[in-house]
């Protein structure tokens, strides 16, 4: 999706006031009636309608008059609200090029006044289902749209909370800078996703580091659930950084073992294929840990000493509640690994 941030400059205070009014109305309306928007925004002299037209022109809103005259936010409208908030907070001053398109996100470079470049991730949960049901019946559209706003916001909050907590426990993750709505700002990782790396100086070392991370995460009570060559970044010194946390689950999740094994399997498969590594002969300890391995060298989930609740304090401090966790865990994590 193109994010034309130039438009931001032309938007007035009133434009944002009306955009925010639509967002507020969407708490309990799929399509927010125009007169409700007008009441919430309470601009003088019926100015709301002119502003609505302008927002519509810039595709920040979608107009729907099938049942009554009303509007809803588009992705772009929601993006602008989050970006505006970040700019107001002084987190960054400019949005640059797009650096990643994930399954459920768009990633952009953003820059501060002093020239520091960071990464901004805009979560787009429910993007596919949202499109798929678009032409279907109203009550479906109703549900999916709610889901999109709510789930994207929740995913961002979860990602931010986990990134911060993991960072505090010494995991190699981007530095979590700020979070608003469906938007997370983090440090920019110099390097490439592992999937783009054709050669490594020390594939064994990198492999051990990565498997060691999965084990250490489990010791901290967590499973990444999408731990694979798309979500591991490698720099020129072959330093590993893990990214992409919205689908993480606790080791007490009912399918924990399956997710753990799947994460491990993705890594084994990838290193086997890409770097011709074979694992049967490997007998040395992974990362010097005391974790048992099966005959193929894969660490066994049951032998890991897991401390659930390890990160609870940090997560709560970021505003991520147990209920949020429950809500988001209703959505089973999917992996991008080719199984
Ligand atoms: P998704 O959840 O949609 O898969 P990711 O967090 O995995 O999103 O990001 C998608 C892509 O964007 C990554 O594969 C990576 O190339 C890039 N990316 C994400 N975060 C960063 C970052 N902090 N620094 C540099 N590149 C990043
Ligand atoms: Mg990803």
From TrEMBL:
Family membership: Belongs to the protein kinase superfamily. RIO-type Ser/Thr kinase family.
Entry keywords, A to Z: ATP-binding, Kinase, Magnesium, Metal-binding, Nucleotide-binding, Serine/threonine-protein kinase, Transferase
EC identifiers of the protein: 2.7.11.1
SMART domains in UniProt: RIO
Keyword Iron: no
Enzyme class: transferase
Top-rank lineage group of the source organism: Eukaryota
Annotated segments matching region Disordered: 284-303
Catalytic activity reported: L-threonyl-[protein] + ATP = O-phospho-L-threonyl-[protein] + ADP + H(+); L-seryl-[protein] + ATP = O-phospho-L-seryl-[protein] + ADP + H(+)
Pfam short name (any one): RIO1
Protein name (database record): Serine/threonine-protein kinase RIO2
CDD domains named among the record's database cross-references: RIO2_C (cd05144)
Ribosomal protein among keywords: no
Domain RIO kinase positions: 64-288
Species whose genome carries this gene: Theobroma cacao
Gene Ontology MF term list: ATP binding; metal ion binding; protein serine/threonine kinase activity
InterPro entries: Kinase-like_dom_sf (IPR011009), Rio2 (IPR030484), RIO2_wHTH_N (IPR015285), RIO_dom (IPR018934), RIO_kinase (IPR000687), WH-like_DNA-bd_sf (IPR036388), WH_DNA-bd_sf (IPR036390)
């Amino acid at each position: 999706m193109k994010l034309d941030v130039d438009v931001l400059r032309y938007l007035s205070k009133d434009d944002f006031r009306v955009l925010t009014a639509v967002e507020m109305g969407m708490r309990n309306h799929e399509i927010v009636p125009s007169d409700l928007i007008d009441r919430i925004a309470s601009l003088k002299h019926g100015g709301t309608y002119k502003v609505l037209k302008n927002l519509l022109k810039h595709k920040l809103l979608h107009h729907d008059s099938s049942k009554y005259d009303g509007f809803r936010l588009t992705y772009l409208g929601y993006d602008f609200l989050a970006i505006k908030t970040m700019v107001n907070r002084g987190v960054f001053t400019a949005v640059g090029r797009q650096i990643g398109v994930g399954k459920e996100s768009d990633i952009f470079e953003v820059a501060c006044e002093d020239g520091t470049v960071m990464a901004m991730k805009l979560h787009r949960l429910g993007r596919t289902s949202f499109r798929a049901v678009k032409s279907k019946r109203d009550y479906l559209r109703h549900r999916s749209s709610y889901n999109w706003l709510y789930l994207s916001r929740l995913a961002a909050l979860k990602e931010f909370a986990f990134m911060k907590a993991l960072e505090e426990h010494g995991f190699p993750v981007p530095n979590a800078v700020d979070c608003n709505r469906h938007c997370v700002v983090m440090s920019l990782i110099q390097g490439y996703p592992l999937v783009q790396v054709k050669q490594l100086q020390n594939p064994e070392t990198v492999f051990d580091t990565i498997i060691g991370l999965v084990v250490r995460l489990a010791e901290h009570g967590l499973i990444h659930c999408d731990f694979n060559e798309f979500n591991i970044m490698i720099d020129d010194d072959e330093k590993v950084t893990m990214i992409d946390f919205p689908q993480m689950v606790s080791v007490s999740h009912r399918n924990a073992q399956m997710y753990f094994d799947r994460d491990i399997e993705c890594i084994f498969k990838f290193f086997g294929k890409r770097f011709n590594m074979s694992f049967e002969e490997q007998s040395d300890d992974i990362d010097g840990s005391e974790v048992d391995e099966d005959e193929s060298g894969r660490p066994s989930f049951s032998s890991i000493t897991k401390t659930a609740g390890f990160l609870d304090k940090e997560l709560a401090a970021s505003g991520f509640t147990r209920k949020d966790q429950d809500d988001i865990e209703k959505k089973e994590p999917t992996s991008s690994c080719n199984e």
